[in-house]
Design goal:
Length: 113
């Protein structure tokens, strides 16, 4: 039992090494509600980390759950960026199918300037 915790910790570290998310800096190009989710496309910029499940090279499509309080805040930031044409930095996570193919779950957004 004494070794269980250190072994568990090592296993979790090894599993987390393969899990990474993409990040992209650009402008919000579209905000689209579909099937209980909101999809946000960010383009006209560049990847900080291009390890994405979407297969996109010129932008990043992300999704969020508008029923979540945290995601409502991120949606507000994305909409503000869209209408003001401001630069954003976004990071994604787990993948889901959407109207434009694969999309990553929006895990963070930074409204620049």
């Amino acid at each position: 039992m004494v070794l269980l915790k250190p072994v568990f910790t090592v296993v979790m570290l090894l599993l987390s090494v393969g899990a990474s998310s993409s990040s992209y800096q650009g402008k919000v190009k579209s905000v689209f509600a579909y099937s209980g989710k909101v999809f946000i496309t960010v383009g006209a910029g560049s990847f900080d980390n291009s390890n994405t499940c979407t297969g996109q090279t010129a932008g990043l499509t992300l999704w969020l759950d508008p029923a979540s309080e945290y995601d409502k805040v991120m949606l507000s930031l994305a909409l503000t960026a869209k209408v003001t044409d401001k630069l954003v930095w976004v990071a994604g996570g787990s993948c889901s199918s959407g109207p434009f193919g694969q999309a990553e779950r929006l895990s963070s957004i930074d409204l620049k300037g």
